[in-house]
Amino acid sequence: MKEVSEDNLPVRILSRRLVVENTRWKVLFDHIQAENGHEVLGYLVVQPKVSLEGNVTGVGVLPVLDDKVILRKSYRYPLEDYFWEIPRGLVEEGDDPEISALRELEEEAGLICDKDDLHFLCNVAPEASTLAAKVAICLATNCRPGGVRDLEEPGLGDCHAFTRDEIRSMIASNEVCEGNTQVALCRYLLDVPPA
């Protein structure tokens, strides 16, 4: 990998225009120039409004309850399809990734775990060419029912428990195609020790 300094980046932003924003996201059009001189007008960048150290803007958490992995089957209307997913969401101002992960675990799966049972697995850049964001993926062991699920998010489905063999079969048959979930499950199946 080529080393770069901030003074000599391979792509420079010549100008940036805010196109639209809501409470969580900004959509930008950048005028960029590559080191070979090639320019692109209107390069699309989608940027979350809250970013923690290392550009972590979201979390995903893989819950394990009674030696089974818990996944949600949710409807994602932009793709008009259902997806198996880990609980995930955006970080909040002032949070650290652990606090955000514990909140998402409770809100989206109705589960809780002790902070000592939450283990960082890796960071994922879901779409590095467009989305200015990284997702911190965690493993939550020794989960138990608790808290209150937030049922207001559109499309969030019910939670289901799966064995390791069922997860392997789901990955092999392409039943799991959401990126953060695939990474979390593969790290779990490979027994990558928590950091």
Please give a structural write-up.
Helices cover 17% and strands 41% of the residues. The protein has 195 residues and is α+β, with helices and mostly antiparallel strands. The two termini are 24 Å apart. 25% of the residues are buried.
Topology:
Blueprint: E1 11-21, E2 25-34, E3 39-48, E4 56-65, E5 68-76, E6 81-85, E7 88-90, H1 97-109, E8 111-112, E9 118-124, E10 134-140, E11 144-145, E12 159-162, H2 164-172, H3 179-189
Parallel strand pairs: 4-10
Antiparallel strand pairs: 1-2, 2-3, 4-5, 4-7, 5-6, 5-12, 8-11, 9-10
How would you summarize this macromolecular structure in one to three sentences?
With 195 residues, the chain is of the alpha+beta class. The chain has helices spanning 97-109, 164-172, 179-189; strands at residues 11-21, 25-34, 39-48, 56-65, 68-76, 81-85, 88-90, 111-112, 118-124, 134-140, 144-145, 159-162. 17% of the residues lie in helices and 41% in strands.
